[in-house]
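Here is one chain, start to finish.
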Amino acid sequence: MPIAKCVRLVRSHDRGSMSVEAVLLAPILVLLVLFVVHVGRLGAAQVRLVTVADHAARAASLVHPRAMHATARSTALDNLMQNGLTCESISVQVQITRQSDPGVVRVAVECLLDRSSLDMLAPVPRTLQAVSSEVIDRWRVDS
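Its structure:
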């Protein structure tokens, strides 16, 4: 039997194998791309939340201690809207430490991410947390 005829017989058995491989691998590749997008969005959301906590702590450090809680919460909510981070619920906790001189204000922000566009990839709620501390400004006007 000539070699060319044997090669044709071997190739006829491989016909369609590329299509089967593509059908099997395409969903896996799509899921991999969606997973990378999901992880990227979570990372971007965490960076935005850290920015929100930083701004809230700085704003709280500039006002009278009685107004720190309200200032930190309103600043955090404003920054969340400006940064485009949507949360189903948000928690802002302010802790004032006066054991050292000068005092320190610590703001912890917790955000339960809105999963409306990620239901397939995130079946469980995602809670992000960020904490920021700032030295209380002793030279503020209202002290």
